[in-house]
Each structure stands twice: as structure tokens, then as C-alpha cells.
Amino acid sequence: MDFTSNVSAQLNAGLILPEGIVIITLLIVLVGDLIVGREGARVLPYIGIGGLLTSIAVLYLQWNTENPIALLGSFSADDLSIVFRSIIALSTAVTILMSIRYVEQTGSALSEFITILLTATVGAMFLSGANELVMIFVALETLSISSYLMTGYMKRDSRSNEAALKYLLIGAASSAVFLYGSSLLYGLSGGETSLPKIAAGIAQTEGGELAGAIALVFMIAGIAFKISAVPFHQWTPDVYEGSPTPVVAFLSVGSKAAGFALAIRLLVVAFPLEQPQWRLIFTALAILSMILGNAVALAQSSMKRLLAYSSIGQAGFVMIGMVAATEAGYASMIFYLLVYLFMNLGAFTGVILFSLRTGSDQITDYAGLYQKDPLLTLGLSICLLSLGGIPPLAGFFGKIYLFWAGWQAGLYGLVILGLVTSVISIYYYIRVVKMMVVKEPQEMSEAIQNYPVLRWNLPGMRPLQVGLVFSLVVTSLAGILSNPLFSVANASVQNTEFLQGVSGVQEAKAESDQLSLNPTAPAILDK
Known about the structure:
By secondary structure, the protein is mainly alpha-helical. It is built from 23 helices and two strands.
């Protein structure tokens, strides 16, 4: 009895109930499709959304759990993971809303698409709390393989097949690099797979600096691929352009959030002594991502490619919080990802609506949209302006928080570069908005002149409308009423044990370096 209760306490399986709910929902959708067939499958997407919202409710109830360790130490359900898992589940719920009409119009099976999407969600949620190398890799591959399948889901579209092949080849290479780094960590730590034990094992290993540095670089390369950081971004524009738009929306938010969650946990827990090294690497990644992402976006003619390079630039902004490596830095990352969820998914919902009605993805075809579809113009404009950081929208406060955290950490050059590239990004976002609101009839594009009559009563159109209006409202109000989100972001960092006192790590390291350079310092300090 004691043995059983001890194992049960170590498993603490109740903490993975949110993931369990998503898995059960996945099975209901899969089996329900076999039972009711395609005719009765219209209710299955709403079952998927209901399961995801239930999972978010359970995550809310698990906030600030006393013992957040589950599955024999391989999973941590601390507040940091709760926030990231909620972001991922919510992004999937909105993605399902926007995919109903899109997938049905292509003639593909909607329930199978939702099943694969929920599988990717389970992998991303486990990745956000994984505290052990085996679980990290299994969760990462669950997310990655599901993403490959969704990217090539439109089998009749040659662009979708091409995107899936590119994503598969480059993704497999990045997984191999990440796995090699993990194996080096396993060897250096003396056969440990738990992240805290790996950190302790590396600290006791003599002469392992070179191998440790290689492991660090390889694992950061794997993470950089997942968050689309330059120079590991090559897959992003082609995959974004060729993939089904709902898949792109999920990759840009859910997959990216999981990548940042993994980066924070892995680097802070397993590489505390190498903090200067990984901060330097992320500084380089942030600089390259902000410059290339925003500069190349200026020349894009395709809306999806523009949002692809925008996504690369946005990753560069978020990495400022990673480089800061302070409590404020991590909290600013979480806050920005929370608001990025709504403004980016809102933009993709607008792109889906426009492509369904016109069949076009070209920016020039948006000319004069305001005269035919005011709601779509308003929703897309607000989301794009928020991505650019125009006040008082949510994106403005997100960037201000990131830049403030970077400035407090002494990253003056990085923050100034972020401000400059943010101004550049405003130009290409406003270019699209200006295109949509031209007033002269002769300036309208041919696609807008032939724009179909608005019919929201068509199957699958109401969910798209709900998704657009919901994203529009949250993006508008989250900037003005941002205090609740600020509180959630700060509390998630302050309540997470391994992030407590991260601000003091740099000070202690600086003091240690000063003492090593000045041997008389201890005597002076004692006096």
C-alpha cells in the first residue's frame, strides 16, 4: 500500500489532466467521424473547441499548485507551463474556427485535419512543461510530425506538397541536430536525462567545456528552427506560402509559443553556468531576425509571405526578453505572446476570408476592399496595426514591455535596433491598410470589382466571422485594459521556482568576475 501510494504521489498524474482532456477530445473526433460519417461531422469541430476550452479551464484551476512535478519528475506543471499551455490550446481553438470553411471548400476531410491539429497541440503542450530530455524529444517530434502532415494536407495542391517536403527535410535535419546536442548532454552529465540533474552533472565534470559548448549550440539550433529565427528561417516563407492558411496560423503562434517555452526551461535549468554564452547567441539571432525579417517583408507581394517575414521579425522582438534573462524579460515574452496570439490569428482569419471570396493572395488585390467588405477591412487593419505596434493597440504595449525589460537589463543597442526595425515594420503594415481603404472606384482591383455578395449564412462562415470579431475585440481592448495580462505574465514568472532570482544570477556572476580580476576586493568588501 505504501509503495502504491508513493508511486501515485510521484506520478501526480492529475497535473496532466488538461493534456488528457485534449487526447480524449481527439479520440472522440476521430471515432465520431467513423460513426456519423461526413454528413454528421459538422458538429465535430465544436466538440474539439469545447474540449480545448475545458482544458484551459482545468489549467486555470491548477494555477499556483503546491507540488507541480509530475510523471516521476519528467513534467513540470508550474505556472510558466500553465500560461504557455493555455496560449497553445487557445490558438488551436481559434485555428479550428478559421479552418472549418477553408478545409471543407478544398474537399478534404475536416475531422481528420482536426485530429492531426489536436495531436500537434498535445505535443506542444507537453513540450511546454517537459523537464526531461526523453519527454522533450518525444513531445517535439509529436508536434513536428503532425505539423508536416498538416502542411501537406491539401494533397491536390502542388504548392502544399512542395511546402510539406521542404518542411519535412529541413525539420528532420533540425531534429537530428537537436538530438545530437541532447546525446552530448546525456554523456557529459554522467547519464542523466532530467534537466536539473544535467546541470549538476555538468558542473562536476572537468574539461567538458568544449563538448558543453557544442551541445548548447546544437540545441539552440533546434529551438531556433522551431521559432523561425534567422539563419534557421529558410523554411518559413515557402512553407507559409504553400501550406493551408489555418496551418500557417497555428505554426506562427502555437508552435512558436512551444519553442519559446522550451528555450526558457532548457537554457535556464540545464545551462545556468553558460548563461553569458547563450545570451550572446540569442543576441545574434535577435539582431539577424529583426533586420532580415522586417527588411525583406518590405519587398513582398504575397500576403502570406509578408506575414511569414513578419513572423520572423516578431520572433526577434520576443528574443529581447530572452537575452535580458531577467524576471521582467521572461514576463515581457509571455505578455507579448499572449497579445500576439490574438493579433496574428486575427490577421490570418482576414487572409482566409479574403482568399475564400477572391481566390487571391496578392497584396495589390486588396485595393478598395473597404467599399465591399467593411468588417473584414476593419478587422484586418486593426490586427496589422497592432502587429506594427501602433498605440493604443495591444501590440504597442507588448513591444513597450519588451523594450523596457531590455533597457533595464542594459541591452541598449538591441532595444534601439528593435525600435528602428519596428518603425520599418509599420511601413509595410500600413501599406496594406492604405491599399484596402482607397476611395476612388477606378483604383479598385479586379478581384474587388468582382467581389461576391457577403453571405455569412453559408456553412462554416459564421465561425470565421466569430474568430475575426473576437480577435478584433481582444486586440483592441487588450492594449487599453492590459493590467490583467500584465498580472498573469508577472505572476507566472514569480511563482515559477526555477525563475525565482534569475535577476540576481547576472549580478552574482559579475561580482565573481570582479573578484577574480581584483584579489584585494574581498578585503575591501569586508571593511
